[in-house]
Amino acid sequence: MRTLIQADYVVGLQDGAHRLLSPGCVVIENEAITHVGPTWNRPADQRIHLPGRLILPGLIDLHLHAGVLAFGRLYADQGRPELFGAGYLEYGAPAENAPAFGPEPAEAGALALAEALLSGSTTVVEFGGETGIAPRNLVAAAGLLGLRLYTAPGFRSARYRTTQDGRLAYEWDRRAGEAGLDEAVSFIEQHDLSAGGRIRGMLFPLQADTCDADLLRRVMDAADRLRVPVHLHAAQGVVEVHEMLRRTGLTPLRWLDELGILRPNTIVAHAIFHDAHPLVAVGSEDLGRLARSRATVAHCAVAMARRGIALRSFASYRRRGIRVALGTDTFPHDMLQEMRIAAYLGRVVDGSVNVAGPWEALTAATIDAADALGRPDLGRLAPGAKGDLVAIDLRSVHFGAVYDPVASLIACGTARDVEHVWVDGRMVVRDRRLLTIDPGPWREAAQTTAEAAWRDATRRDAAERGAEQISGLAPRRWQDSEEHLE
């Protein structure tokens, strides 16, 4: 089957970088791209003409947490000052004797993957089922949706807790960490390359400060044997940096580097609080170490901005030779918004309009993310690449007049502008609708689960607050009055 897709704008690969064809076309045969160029004059079994559209390579969400994320949504716009904006410690370090994240319904994970796909992400890295979604359920959902998915069970040597006097504590169980790694290895051996090769494995030691050195050394040995990437959180919070300095005398990034964990196949989620960051300010080596290691930073601009945190900065990391890709983290799973916020916050931090341009943001969401996965067949439209494409409808009123379609996309685009999506040359989204399933029941299941969790919020919260107090909604509720108008 040979499919010809023609559009007013096509972003193809030339000399290793994205280049604009206007007009342009893409030809797909047997799941792969065979031609990208201005025209095609040979026969085709199927011709798709898309005037007013922009054709992009499928976007890659390099760091996503699937699930209801009920507690993350409660704490999204509030925070204890001693945590310096680290939202994950607000809800990921429950009160003593309170339950940690429990199992969530499969529908909640499927909903997150559906949202990502509808937003133009054809490849998703789901971070180890950390928030309660079983990776086996994610594999099933990805197979149904036709999505590319990297996942496996996450693991660690310690869990976060909040003591009765409000201090962060670590509950160490090194045997659990070792058993978790063994489970992840077995999962990868069972599922890697399933669903026609769309399911891939990855090792997820959850956080630098919750993994001991022996576990991380075993992780790297396993990654070499399995030939899979490694992905962990590090330098994501000031509290974490202080803990690692106290425990090891090193910043998280330096500790990982000296252990040999930072490698070309390592993805570090966030990597914001390096040794020269103003809130740390204990050195000037971390970013150089990141660059020399050729590890990748998974930057999640929206989730961090919600907590008052910004990378310092998107452009400066790239200038140092650090590969920076993008992820949506908790919510929303909208890579178009992620590109915009990453670019704009990068400009604010640098105080310059001449950095973090739209094409750089697109590269981070495609080529750089694909290279982090060791996948030269993803993130680009070129002969030999997988037939993963996204069609953006630029004819909506909010786009106005279009000169540079990528600049218009970053400035004005939303997930609702993603009209069609192909994975392996198969259309999986048509006219903004999934072709495989109605996700409405998944959303209803997620709402029911979240409401049950919110009713239980007091038991988990270290300060014994209810959902309305945690979220800040309590003072915004309409107050009944004894005086009524006739």
Question: Topology, please?
Answer:
Layout: E1 2-14, E2 17-21, E3 24-29, E4 32-37, E5 46-57, E6 59-64, H1 70-74, H2 87-92, H3 106-118, E7 121-126, H4 135-145, E8 148-150, E9 158-162, E10 168-172, H5 174-191, E11 199-200, H6 213-226, E12 230-234, H7 238-248, H8 252-259, E13 266-270, H9 286-293, E14 296-299, H10 301-306, H11 314-319, E15 323-326, H12 335-350, H13 358-364, H14 367-372, E16 389-393, H15 405-412, E17 418-423, E18 426-430, E19 433-434, H16 440-455, H17 457-460, H18 467-471
Parallel strand pairs: 1-5, 6-7, 7-8, 8-11, 12-13, 13-14, 14-15
Antiparallel strand pairs: 1-2, 1-3, 3-4, 5-16, 9-10, 16-17, 17-18, 18-19
Helix pairs in contact: 3-4, 3-16, 5-6, 12-13, 13-15
Q: What is the C-alpha radius of gyration, as a whole number of Å?
A: 23 Å
CATH class of the largest domain: Alpha Beta
What's the architecture of the largest domain in CATH terms? Alpha-Beta Barrel
Largest sheet: 9 strands, mixed
- Percent strand equals 15-25%
Per DSSP E runs of 2 or more residues, the count of β-strands stands at: 19
Shape: globular
Report how far apart the termini are: 72 Å
Helix content: 25-40%
The CATH homologous superfamily of the largest domain is called Metal-dependent hydrolases
